[in-house]
# Entry
Amino acid sequence: MTCYDRQDLGLLLLRLGTGGVLAAHGSQKLFGWFGGGGIEGTGVAMEAMGYSPGRQSATMAGLAEAGGGALLALGLATPAAGAAAAGAMAGATAVHAPNGFFAAGGGYEYAASLALTAAGLAVTGPGRLSLDHALGHAVNRGWMVPVALAVTGAATAVVVGLRNRRGREASEFGQEALFDEADAVFGSRG
# Structure
């Protein structure tokens, strides 16, 4: 008979809590559950946040959150699940970063906490109270951790980089439009 220790129980609690929150958050995006906007509403919001195309961005973020969260809760494919969830939350962190750290002010505290917990679970593993353990760790090998984190990190960097570039371009375009309006009202810039 196997005796589970505090570490196994602690990892189970972390997985269930973090995975459950992420799965619920993702289902808001995908299905409109729990007061969420569904794909259409979330797609519009994603566009407004600079993630374009909005519908595809909403789908990918929803899948990473709901799928990654569900898999984390189950303790299945933990490296990929944790990396996917961490990547989605890194994208959310980029949106909230201009508002500072604390969530009370619209900051990135909450998203960063979920990202770090998901990444930590990807690195640490799910513990013995998991499907990965029950299946002999077939989809939870040591080499999968750096691969999953590297692939997700690279993809997240590209997506957030494109968002930031769009934001800079929109800002520059906005400034040009303001100058053009001012020129029309006050005459040409000299």
In short: Residues 96 and 113 are 13 Å apart (CA to CA). Helices lie at 6-31, 38-48, 54-74, 78-96, 109-124, 131-134, 144-186.
